[in-house]
Amino acid sequence: MERFSIQTDQRETVVDITGKVRDAVKSSGIREGICIVYIPHTTAGVTINENADPSVKADIRSVLMKLVPEGRQYRHLEGNADSHVKATMTGSSVSVIVESGVLQLGTWQGIQFCEFDGPRTRQVWVKILGAV
Amino acid sequence: MERFSIQTDQRETVVDITGKVRDAVKSSGIREGICIVYIPHTTAGVTINENADPSVKADIRSVLMKLVPEGRQYRHLEGNADSHVKATMTGSSVSVIVESGVLQLGTWQGIQFCEFDGPRTRQVWVKILGAV
Amino acid sequence: MERFSIQTDQRETVVDITGKVRDAVKSSGIREGICIVYIPHTTAGVTINENADPSVKADIRSVLMKLVPEGRQYRHLEGNADSHVKATMTGSSVSVIVESGVLQLGTWQGIQFCEFDGPRTRQVWVKILGAV
Questions:
Q1: Which residues of A touch C89 (CB under 8 A)?
Q2: Which residues have C-beta within 8 Å of that of residue B15, sequence separation ≥ 6?
Q3: CA nearest C73 in A: which residue?
Q4: Closest partner residue to A59 among C33, C85, C131, by Cβ?
């Protein structure tokens, strides 16, 4: 397993981690298979979406903040119940195909870490499973 | 493939299945790879989230019930249209890394079956794919 | 990697692609493993849900249109900010177990391409990873 950490700077923010995942694929030496990007946290998630225009990341954040607002209307009393729900709505991992040692993303796609309870230092785990 | 069943006791409920998935990993004998937990139903899903405080599971349920309420406003006439939509919002599988024969979850993470049209007996399928 | 394309005929629509994924599994010749269905777009997604009654697909579309409405309230100025957010809410890939050369879906499950910014010609990538 490859690992790296990232530092987030707001309570809720979407951060591009594509370059770091590409580095992990290179380090693995695996030419063909599947890359799993896994977030070992319960108030953060990961998604694949447009990277070119930063406003897409801002819109993802805004919609989730509106649908699952921060506040006192929840049972979980740590003030981050909304963060846990947002983590479930985005998901804890993404899977990307690897061919010829290269992560196969669509033209506009990037891999984006979704922070819902920052700012914090967070871990990202990457496992590349080679094809038989 | 490993399989187990669980019995849910309410229409909508979030149930921890981490122990049963850990048992499936052990049974497989695989030391390193990826574990896929797959739900073969269309009105239930699976997520990874906090397990320590049961209020997190209650909050996930409540938010989904509020965003996609049960009722007669849907086209699907079996009374469980909302359950199908909630299944799509949580997802039909999760992927977790396996190292040294152990499921690699973050400190607070558990694997949680999401029932949206219970009570029912449900199946969970687990496939562990070994690293080459 | 296997690939196929589909043509969507509306801005937002849910299209069954199960048959095409089954064909890709057959073409791969792999008998046991995991099938990853990956969407290389940022305004489309993929989900697993009921296929028998087409009203379920219509309800998934309607709920997402209501939760994340099309409009001018977003920062991304291309008119499809809602489409990007819906893509994150459904997800960019699904994982399905393969046994005896056959995709292991539950009785009522189908694999469904989710178009959020059509009509367009879209690509679907399929990777089957064999078990060791």
A1: 89
A2: B6, B8, B57, B112, B113, B115
A3: A59
A4: C85
- The answer on pLDDT for C132 being more than 90 is no
Cβ contact C75–A89 (<8 Å): no
What one-character DSSP code corresponds to residue B3?
E
What count of other Cβ atoms lies within 10 Å of the Cβ of residue B5?
10
CATH architecture of B6-91+104-131: Sandwich (2.60)
Closest by Cβ to C127, choosing from A60, A97, A132: A97
- Please, which chains are in contact with C (at least 3 CB pairs closer than 8 A)? A, B
Rg of the Cα atoms in chain A: 15
Domain boundaries, chain C: 6-91+104-131
pLDDT averaged per 10 residues, chain B (length 132): 97 98 96 97 98 94 97 92 98 98 97 98 97 81
| Residue A132 pLDDT grade (very low, low, confident, very high; cuts 50, 70, 90) | confident
List Cβ neighbours of B77 (8 Å cut-off, separation of 6 or more): C55
Distances in Å between the Cα of C43 and the Cα atoms of A109, A112, B84, B85 are 10, 15, 21, 19
Q: Cβ separation of C99 and B1 shorter than 8 Å?
A: yes
Distances (CA, A) of A55 to A49, A58, B112, B128, C85: 11, 5, 33, 38, 11
Find tokens 């690699």 and name the residue.
Answer: B104
Mutate to test the interface with B, among C50, C99, C114 (most CBs of B within 10 A): C50
Closest residue in C to B2 (Cα–Cα): C97
Q: Do A36 and B33 touch (CB under 8 A)?
A: no
Cα–Cα distance measured from residue C56 to residue C47, given in angstroms and rounded to the nearest whole number: 12
Tokens of B72: 């007669």
Cα separation, B73 vs B28, in Å, equals 45
Answer for the pair C33, C95: CB distance below 8 angstroms, yes or no: no
* Alpha-carbon distance A51 to nearest alpha carbon in chain B (angstroms): 23
